Structures are given as C-alpha cells and as structure tokens.
Amino acid sequence: MSLISKDGALRVAFTLNGRETTVETVTSRVLSDLLRDDMNLKGTRVSCGRTVCGACSVLVDGFPRAACSTFAFEVEGRDVQTIEGVEAPDGTLDPVQAAFAAKSAFQCGFCTSGMILLAKSLLATHPDPDRATIIAWISSNICRCTGYELIVEAVQDAARAMREGPKS
Amino acid sequence: MSDQKPLRIVGQPVERADAHAKVTGRARYTVDLAKPGMLHAKVLRSPHAHARVVSVDIAAAAAMPGVRAVTTGPQLAEWVAMPVYGYFIKDQPILAMDRVRYEGDMVAAVAADTEAQANAALALIRVEYAALPDLPDIDAALDTDAPDLFPETPRGVVPPYGQGASAQLWPRKNVCYAFRYASGNASVFERCDHVFDDEFRFSRMNHLHLEPFVCVAEWREGDEIEVVTSCQNPFPLRKEIARIFRLAESRISVKVPFVGGGFGAKNNCKTEPIALVLSKMTGRPVRFCMTMEEGFLTNTQHAAVLKLKTGVMADGTLVARQSHILLDSGAYSDASPLVAEKAGYRVSGPYRYQHVESLCECVLTTTTPAGPYRGFGGTQATWASESQIDMIARRLGLDPMEMRLKNLVALHEPWMPGESGVDSDMAEGLALVAEEIGYDRPRDAAPGWSRGRGLAIGFKDGGGVNKPAQARVKVSTGGDIHLMCGTVEIGQGARTALAQVVAEILGAPLARVEYLPLDTRYTPFDQGTNASSAITVMGQAVQRAAVSVRNQVLQMAAEHLGTDAAALELEDWTIRHGNEAHPLAPMIMHIYGGTGFEFTGDGFHKQANDHQAPLETKSVFWEIGWAGVDLSVDRETGQVKIHALAVSGDAGRAIHRLVCRGQDEGAALMGLGQALFEQMVYDGSRLINGEALMYRVPLAEDLPDRFTSILQEQGHGPGPFGAKGMGEGTMLPVPPAIANAIEDAVGVRIRDLPLTPERILSAIVAAQG
Amino acid sequence: MFHSPSARQVARTPADLAPMPLYRPETISEALAALHESGGTIYAGGTDFFAGVRQGLSPKALIWVAAIAEMKGCTIDSNGLHMGALNTHDESVAAPELDAVPGLAEAWSKIATVRIRHQATLGGNLMARRERYELSILLTALGATARMVGPELQVDMPVQDLWQADLEKTPLLASITIPLDNAPMLAYERSMRPTFTQALCRRGQALRCVMATEWLQPWFKDAPLDADAGQMMSGLPADFHDPAVSRAHLVRAGSVFLKRQIARLEDLA
Questions:
Q1: Whole-model pTM above 0.95?
Q2: Which residues of C touch A118 (CB under 8 A)?
Q3: Least CB–CB distance from C19: residue in A2, A26, A54
Q4: Please, where in chain A does CATH 3.10.20.30 lie?
Q5: Burial zone of B317 (CB within 10 Å; 0-12 exposed, 13-18 middle, 19+ buried)
C-alpha cells in the first residue's frame, strides 16, 4: 500500500544544518514555509514562488533546490542546509560568505542566501571553476541589483581561499 | 574640518555595514515580520481592463471560517476620511469605488487568520461588472472616440515651477498632466542648416524587486498606528496615511527595516492603506504581502512615444530642439506627473542649445499604473535623445563622438539658464568608455556578421527637487555613535556610506557607528530614498550633524583643558592635545556627572529655493552615465552579439568604491536587459508575461564577453568629501549606445525598444530594398 | 496560448493547499491504483507542479512518484532509446545511451539552469504542456513517442500529440521512446530565445524541423534531405505568430538557421 498519509498529517525526519530533526507537519506544507514560519529560519527568502528566481535556494544533499517548490515530505531522510547552517558553530564565516562580504557581492541582500548556497554547491564539486562555469551556475538565480560581476568575482575569491586553506 | 587630512575611512575598502547580516541570512526585512494575533490580507482583483462595478456581494465571503473582515470601495467611507491617494493627483482609490480601470485593479479586501482562508473567501465574492471599452495604449487613449477614464476629474496640484517651466492638470481627455519647458527663441530654427524630425518608442519594464510589496499594519487602541513596510519614502507615506485617515502625523509610526530592492516601485501607498483599514476594522495587526505576480499588477515603468525635432548647423553645432513626449501612465497618475517633469526637462541631454522646448504628457491607459523607475524619465529621454544625436551625426557625415564633443556643456557651465553648473567633465568620461571599447579600432567581424561601436551619454539632474533632509548624530559618554536619518537601506549601501562619513568626521572606527532603525516618530525628516540623493543630500545633512557633535565635544574639552578648540583633535573618543591624550569618558563624567551625557548634533540640507531655476531649485548635482558598446550583428538573422560593454559613472569622490561599482554595474545590466529583451508583453490590455518564468530579466549568462565599469572620481561633487550620487546614471546610456552601435555595424536605425533581432532584420531587409 | 496568471488567482501561494492524502507508490501499478482511489495529482520534481498551484491547481491528493524505479533510467533495445519519465535533465544528459543520438545530449544540456536541471524531470517538462518548455521541441524533432499508462489502457503516442490528447484514461507518462532507425542526429538552435528556438533532426534521407516560440506550441515539418530551407519554413501556418514575434520574421530568420543547421548535421554525418 502506497498511502503514506491519509489525513494529510505526517512526520518528517531529516538532517537540518547538521542536526537530526523531526517535525510534525502536513503533506501540503512546502519546505520554505516549514523553515520560515514553523522553524523561524527566516534566512531562506521567498520571491517568485515558482522555482525561477532561486532566492529560496537551500541545499538538499548538497545541491541547490528551490524551497518554495519542494514539499516538506520530500526531504525525509535527506540532508538540508540553509544559510543559517553555513557559518561555523563558533560564528566564523564560511569562505564563500567571507568573500561575498569582502567583495560587496550583494546589495539589497534578498538573493544573497540563495547565491551563497549556490556557490557553495558549485565549489564543493568544482574547486577551481573557470569563469564560464561560475556564470553557468550563478545563472540559476536572479540578482536584480549587482549586475552579477561582483558575485562572479566573489566566487573566484572564495575558490582561491578554499584551495589555499585558512590564512596563517 | 578634517578634509585636508588623509582619509581613514572614506574611500577605504571597509566591509559594508550590512555585510554580516546579509551573508549570514540574519538581515530582517518586512516580509520576515510576524506579530502575535496577526491577520492576513488578500485582495480581489478585476479580471476586466475597464468596467463599471455594478454590484459586489461579500456575504458568503464574510461567513467563511477565519474571516475577520471584508470590505469594498463603497464601504470604506466608514473607515477612512479620503478613499483616494496619489502623488500630485488624488485619483487612485484604495479599493475600486464604481469602476475598475485595469486588469488587476483592487476591488475587495479580506482579512483572515491565514492567507489560505483569505484567499478562499475571495473566491466567494461575487462581482457584477459591466464591461467598458478598454484603452490598451497611448494611441487608443488619445483617440477622439475613446471613453473618458475619469468622467469626474480628480483633484490635484501643480507645484510651483521656475524660469521656463510650467504644467497643467487634465489638459485634454485621458491626459492627467502636461509639463512644459522652454528656453530661448524658436526663431533660431530658421537659420539652422538642417532640421530633423524623428520619433522613438520606449518599452516598459517591471521593477522585479525580489522582496515583494509587503507591510504589517497595526491600528492600536486610541487611534495610534504603526506600519512596518517595505518602502522607499516613509515620510511622504506617513503624510498620505494621515490624510487618508485624517489622523495627526504624530500618531503614526512608519518603520522601515531592510528593503529587498525597489528600483523606484516602493514609493508611496502600495499595501499600506488596505492593511490599515483591515486593522482598524478588526483591532488586530494585519499583514498584507503581495505575490510577485501581484507586483506586476501594481507598478511599472512608463512606455513612451518621443518625437524630437532638432535643428543643427552643417558642422554639427546643435541649435534647437523641440520635443513632444507621451508617457503611458497606466490607469492612475501615481508618480507620472513627476516622471513627466523629468522626462520633459531632461530630453535635450548634455548638450548646449540656443532653444529648447518640450512638452511631456501623461496619458492614462487601462494598464498597470506606471510610476517611478530607476532613471525616472531620464531613461526615456536618453533613449530618444542619444539615438537622434547619432543619427544626425551620420546624416551630416560626422563622427558621432566628435559631434558629441563639439556640443557638450562644459564643466561648471550652467546646463540651462538658471541652473547649476554641470559638475563632471563629460568629455573626459566619453573618452574613457571610447578607449575601453576600442572605438577607433578596425571593425573586424566573423563572416556574415558586421561589427559596430556606439557611444551614448546618460544625463539627468540628480538629487531631486524640493528634497529637505535632516539627520541627527548622538554620541554617548563612552563614544557610542548613533546615526539617525531617514535614508532607507535598499541595497545601495547608504548605511555604510553615511556611517563612513560620520566615522571619518568623528575620528572613530566605523564599527562604533550604529545606523538606528528608521521610525518616522523618532527619525529626523527626509523626503525619500530616491533620485540618487542619499549621499549628496542626506550626506550633507549627516556631515553637518557629525561636525556639530565634533565641535561640541572639542569645545567642551577646550574649556575643560583651558585651551582653544582649534588646538585639539578628536580621535577614537580621545582628545589629542599635542602629545597629550585625554580619554573623553572620564572627562565627560567629570563635567556632567557619573551618569554621563549624550552629545547631539543635528544636520539639515536643502538646495535653496530659486525661482530663476526651472524646477524652483537648482539641480543638486548632475548624474552622468557614459556607455560604449562593441558588437557584431548577424546580417542574415538580425542577431546581436555584444563583445564589450563599458560603462562609467562619476562618483565625484567614492565613499566606498565597491558599492559604487555595484551600483554602476547593476544599473548597466538593467539597461542591457531593456535594450535587448526585457519587456512587459501585452495582448491588448492584458499583461501576458506577468510572472517570473515568462518575464525574462538579465541573468549572469547575459553578461557581455567583456563588461567593464570605470569608476571616475572627478572631485566636483557637492556631497561630503566631494561625493556625488550614483546608481541610475549608467542605466540610461546603454540602450542608445547599443542602437548606435547597431547602426554603425549594419547601417540601420532601430527606433523602438527592445532592439529585437526581428526589428533589426526587418530594417536590414528594408534597406536592401 | 497565454498562461498569464488570471487576475483572480495571482494571490495564490502553496499555503492555500489543504493537507491532503499522500501516496508514495513504488510501482506504476501502485501509482495507478492510488490515482484511481484518490483522484489525485501526480507529483515528481515539483518545478512545474507549483507553477500550476500558483495558477489554481488544487489537488485532491498527491501521488508522489519519485520512488518508482521502473520510471527511471535509460535503455536501448530494438525499438529504440527508452528514457524513464522520472529522469532529471542531469540524469538524462549523463546517460551514455544518449550517445545513440548524436547532438541530443548537447542540446539537452543547454535547457533550463544548473539548479533546475538537477530537479526537473523529463515527465514534468512534457506533461506541463507549456509552450516554452523545450523537451517537447527536441523530442518532437526526434519522432519520440510517449508511453501513457492507465489502469486499463496503455498508449504510445507521438509526443506532439500530448498537447491535445485526452489523458483521462491514461494519465501517467511512464517513459518516452526515441526510434533509432536510420541513425537520427539532432541539431538545436536556442540562441534566439526568447524569440524562437529551432530543432532539426536528420534521419537517413529525411529531415524534421521544429519551430517554437515562448507562446506557440511547437510546429514541425517533415521533408526530404535535399529540401530547401526557405520552402520548409514557408509552411509555417498563417497564425504562427505571437505578441513578441511575427510570422514573417520566423520564416525569414528560421530559414537562415535551418540552412545552417542542415549544414551542421551534414558535417556531423
């Protein structure tokens, strides 16, 4: 029998920012609402509501995905990372965050959570991406403010910092 | 003043003040706010472009679970004093009264415990409409047989204008405002060697700010209200709210946290009146958050038709220009009169003429209301003007760059009689972008393609008209600095730049400056975050406030130390007196007592009123954007390949170089989108690409092969340390520079935006006969 | 033709959905049983489903088909290249079987974005039946068929028929099949987006060209290998135009690209 929930109630167990998490929710709940409204993780921004702009991108098993267009039940057993889980527990910024901050690779900041997660996913699989690869990845999300050039440069800076390791 | 000393913070590569909050996701926007007991508002929108509202039945909706209030336009009388709003003309109803004027016009509003309940209730509202003929565009609206969109003329005002400028409300049917400007004598046309008439059309974009239109409004016991909103001009909004509800402004608190983009859209009433009505009805906080699709139905750029008649001597000397601009204002006036004023005023561009005369009319159509949009009339004007300059140069057999150089208004020369002097050397900027794109290099192209290069200069008066700005700087005993001003952090970096100014003047580390949350009850007055005005207008107010505090501190220390204030310096909240260092905290407590003190400095800036100036004040500064484009055109398909786009702005002095760069590059890419593909597509009066998938905005993959922004610091700005405003200038010249390069490549002139392959190919085919 | 959001529905969000029964079938027959039992809606990658929700879709139940192994993967047999409807764009492009159709992997790798390619499925792209989605264009050119299954019925239909077909009795797209006879190869031109795209398949001595725009369902034309590009394009129906592009331009520019694509495939052959 393939029925998982008859009345729409269900429990979802997943890893959220490195912690085992179980939530009681409903089948109609989308991940962005679960994160923002039920768990108060407001760093995931919602804009277009139809997967296009990518402002709500979170990493699911390390890959960016629009949380506005993902049901909560889909992350059962999976690893979810939001912007809140990017910095180290002691508050040290991730190299991608540090590069975005240093490069002013943001303006209004509304796309920034998604862009940083996108860049993290890119650099996890491409430690030394060329410009074309960075542009291909960054083209997944919309930034209406920067003209993208500073974002591309921040990703390049982050890649260099990650390859060279922490500064002594 | 410490201007002579080397700068420690201004112009240095400091981290933006909002960097940590934004890269960690901790930044909070209005959309993130929730209050206990909060209700959610949703509105019913008209599916008709133009119709009489015969009846609205809300009974079934009101009976739905979770629904706390339902209202319609005619029922508003119980809750508001004035059911309409608008900038110059009060024509936009909070909810439709007896007529809807565009598809998406708001008809009824619901507040419910959840958004889902509100939407479910909307579905049960029954509206009977009687369709009326729609007016999808300027031509339709001006047709003699067109119905009158406002049979009863809404009230409005014309602001005072100075030398040569005037305006009229409702000059003819479906035209809500006409602005005129004239200088010099039209008779000079008679001695021109050539007079050229050309017509251009400008497309229409959506702002696509990523944070939606959203507010949380709370009408509290005792008629005290708080509105937290994603808004660019909280003080004018407060004034409008006070008028709508006939309430003292002192009872209204408008608060603005971080704003997730606006580009002009978030000026004046959007979500706020409806949320307030529903809160007043229910006694509970009400959140009204629109979707992006609703954003498309709320505010847009102005499409335009621009007719230019330009008289010129055979050697390329410009003599006279007459312009007639028609703006598609959509269904309500919104900011159209202001945009008309700017488009009409700016249309002669950065050149010297003996005579200019322009008329700009706001034409109402049954489409989404058009309002402020980055560039504010300057985009439309520059498109036509910079296209025609190139066309004239080519007709006269002159190099377009040479012709521009011949006619540019010089540095410090008043742009028009009564105006301030232009504060950039425009030839210098033009040379920079020309060099960057290899303007004079051979035009090599792939087989079947033709190479071309084009230039353009975007030119606008900057800093706004009638913009008073006030700021307050407070420093407590320990040296903690509070900066209070009404500039909204919308992404432009205002918090950082203004804090840098304060830190520089007070000799303090940047981290000591806290930019306090904006609340109209406590924050000093500001006209709004627009017109690239923050650093030049508010910047001067902030500068004065900081200088005031510094002077007070130095004066206190001088008296305490028995010396002259001029002998003292303030550094890191320590008084330096020769080789002595006197920490301030103990000194302050010694003087004022153990609980300490707080130094408060106020600053104010407003450009002086001046009836000799056409817009009643001289322009605060001049915002110039230069663009150069190197491209190839496929002669068989009309496809355009941009090899290089170079833009440049003059920051006067860059307070923060990366922030300036981001503004210039973001503006340029918006211009690139407008030039090549981005547009709202209408089928009659119906917008057919009003959502993110079908509405294409520039992505990183749309970047040209080479995209360069050159930040100039010519040093002539009136702002702190010589700064000028940034952020709009480089959007203006991009579309005409591309059109100019296309003509350079394939010899055809495209007069309509966007510059689609179809338009280019059709012109090539037509030219081949 | 225009899927613009209705002014009455622009305020909808997924929060409007009521909690509903959720099925997670592991076989096609379980999925069909769940569909029959619940009258629900099939849910796979999610990209297009939510666009539907935003514009009024309100499912009675969700049939989440992600776990149906038989709807994934690629195989080749004597009937052609079979691809499961649940393959994401990334998975499809990475499948070595795709090399059986030169040009297909390259074309497929260009559609959508890095993020979407990881999430969106072949089935979702086709079943959305939105004009600007590109798999319909590529697969129509390749003469692919869609295997539609229902409780009592199974139909293989040309993918271009999906636009108009009544799928009441066969609601589930299980897989598609690209016939491999006569060594098909594909060229795809999408540099003119958002104006138009053009796919061309050469199969033995035959050509099939597909033209599509943001708002028009793909139009295709079969012709012999030596056909004249201009003549092929002049077959575009009189009403093949939209508010962003005229028919005359599509014929004119389409002919040029077609000529180029024919040459490209000639080189490939």
A1: yes
A2: 115
A3: A26
A4: 9-85
A5: middle
